[in-house]
């Protein structure tokens, strides 16, 4: 018995070495209060009093709750799209293996994201490099007027939304010269989120983000080049990427007033008072407590962070990122929409598998629930059965 206890103890110590406390904090951020200044404590915006049974850590990266969506293509989807006048899922509409190889070789990042830990050193490098360069980001190619939305173009758009994690020949990438900027802004936003708290970061406005970044030495002030990069990402017409959704927030500095929000218990997320919270409560009443809130209000800062994190993950492909994450300014999470999932499912809630759950089927049977991005949409966005349309 003692020998078994010793072995068990050694295994426990080994596990602690492999998964230290800091890693546990990263994997389950809602179980730990975030470091914050006195100005941010207030009523504790970050996730506090979260019940362990309600924690649904996303796959791989809890910072970016929409980055790791696996794709499951139901046969019904293929059959549905195949009923149109012209076959959609044809090899001619998808990039060839050689095209994908050429794209990857042409758009490799200049730096390794895993090696980027000193954001200020990166920012300094960018400032030096950009002294005689334009202060704005322009994508690699394919500039010009938006092509006419012919039937074949719409079919291609649907195909891209289905096979959203592929690179296509007409995808727009971040310029190679702006790759360091992309990574430095993403890293600074990530550090900022850790400082102000995950909950508060959801509704953090841009002006406050700049103030807090400058205040926290662990984050550091955004540089002139970084701010120009952010401005250009926000002001860019998303149709250039192949995203045809409506821009619902015109100003980068739009402020979400705390008085208009409600923090949903045990979630770390906020909903707008009146319409959104009433909709969510009605949904929970009719579907049951098995349905949970997985994402609520997102400020421009939050959406920018999510979008850039995805862009980093896909080697600077802005078009590919926009197929699964709305660019900042285009997310309806900023004006009322929210995401739901099945309790205990974690990251699976952000896959097509959610559409096969009893919870989703019950929502559909209610008659009043509408999905923002449904199957076969021509907005350039993948199927999102979890995204509830409110406004």
Kindly describe this structure.
- The protein is of the alpha+beta class and 391 residues long.
- It has a single domain, classed as Muramoyl-pentapeptide Carboxypeptidase, domain 2 (2-Layer Sandwich), CATH 3.30.1380.
- The protein has 15 helices and six strands.
- A four-stranded antiparallel sheet has the order 3-4-6-5, covered by helices on one side. It has a two-stranded antiparallel ribbon with strand order 1-2.
- β1 and β2 form a beta hairpin.
- α6 (119-129) runs antiparallel to α8 and α8 (179-196) crosses α13.
- The longest helix has 18 residues, at 179-196.
- It is globular, with a radius of gyration of 22 Å.
- The chain starts with a helix and ends with a strand.
- Residues 10-95, 106-116 and 130-148 have low confidence and may be disordered.
